[in-house]
Amino acid sequence: MEKFVARKPEKEVISMRIPLETLKKVDSRAASVGISRNELINQMIQYALSNMEDITEEET
């Protein structure tokens, strides 16, 4: 069996501005599933990136 090796993923600290109402919804959802705001936002970004359609500049 392969040995487990714990790793800390590389992350970058950023700042972002979002509407207060959106932040309240994010905080509420994060609390309801028992994860941090940061973790929920990361998961939502990953989901969006994995599920968005590829659009070329010519199509816009």
Concise overview:
The protein has 60 residues and is an all-alpha fold.
Please explain how this structure is put together:
This protein is mostly helical and 60 residues long. It is 48% helix and 0% strand. It is built from 2 helices and no strands. The protein has helices spanning 20-33, 37-51. Helix 1 (20-33) packs across helix 2 (37-51). The radius of gyration is 16 Å and the shape is extended. The termini are far apart. The model has no long low-confidence stretch (mean pLDDT 92).
How is the secondary structure organized here?
Layout: H1 20-33, H2 37-51
Helix pairs in contact: 1-2
Report helical residue fraction. 40-55%
Radius of gyration: 16 Å
Order of helices and strands: HH
Morphology call:
extended
**Could you list the spans in which at least 5 consecutive residues all have pLDDT below 50?**
none
Q: Count every helix, treating DSSP H or I runs of 4 or more residues as helices.
A: 2
How far is it from the N-terminal to the C-terminal residue, by CA? Answer: 50 Å
Summarize this structure as a short list of keywords or feature phrases.
mainly alpha, 2 helices, 60 residues
